[in-house]
Amino acid sequence: MKFLAAASLFALAEVALSATTHKVTVSNMDKQLIFAPNVTTASAGDMVEFVFYPMNHSVVQASLLQPCQPLAGNKGFYSGYVPSTSGAASTSFLITVNDTKPIWFYCSQGDHCQDGMVGAINPPAANSTNSSITAFAAASKLVPKTTVPDFKPQGGNLTMNAQASGTTMSPSATSTSTSTASPSPSSGARELTVGAAAGVFGAVAAVFAAVL
Q1: Which has the least CB within 10 A, 11, 19, 22, 23?
Q2: Are strands 21-26 and 103-106 parallel, antiparallel or unpaired?
Q3: How far apart are alpha carbons 126 and 64 in whole angstroms?
């Protein structure tokens, strides 16, 4: 029984060490209405960190068939608005990818979604009918009005961006003029992944000590 427990802990440690944090910038220094990259390929257990640039943007999970509006039932992630006056904001938004099903998202500020500020995690291949990021962006342009979530940030964690260079105010769920994901740790993703792995290996060592 103890050997089975040790094997399980080793499996958890392997997952923790193999997890990757993917960085996606929300706009850029030129204030372009883009997510860069707009397509991210992630494995289950990986994290995606959204880094915000001027002026005031958000990340909202949507569906392929209903772009520019929150996922049905308000079940998706939402960062709230994260403003910055220059450079990267001091606040990032972290989500954890639970599986490899497609995740679609957009910015809910003004007409940013219609202007092409959309992205995806693990979208189907580009040659799949009506399933690529190109199709999602094209459909977004036809939406009369972007839907701003009427709920507070959820589905991820707002955390400090250690490499921030811009000035930012506190994130909010309110806009100013200017698959499924789950909550991520509130501290640095890479540090947490290593820390979690260290904890698992410590538990493994304890189990073997008990066995021997």
Answers
A1: 11
A2: unpaired
A3: 14
Q: At what angle do helices 189-211 and 2-18 cross, to 10 degrees?
A: 160
Q: Are 60 and 81 in contact (CB under 8 A)?
A: no
Q: Is the pLDDT of residue 131 over 60?
A: no
Output DSSP code: residue 97.
E
pLDDT in tens, 39-54: 999 999 999 999 999 9
10 Å Cβ neighbour count for 151? 10
User: Are 105 and 183 in contact, with CB atoms under 8 Å apart?
Assistant: no
- The helix/strand/coil state of 62 is strand
Give the Cβ contact number of residue 162 at 10 Å. Answer: 11
Angle at 60 between CA 119 and CA 86, to 5 degrees: 80
Q: By the 8 A CB rule, do 168 and 86 touch?
A: no
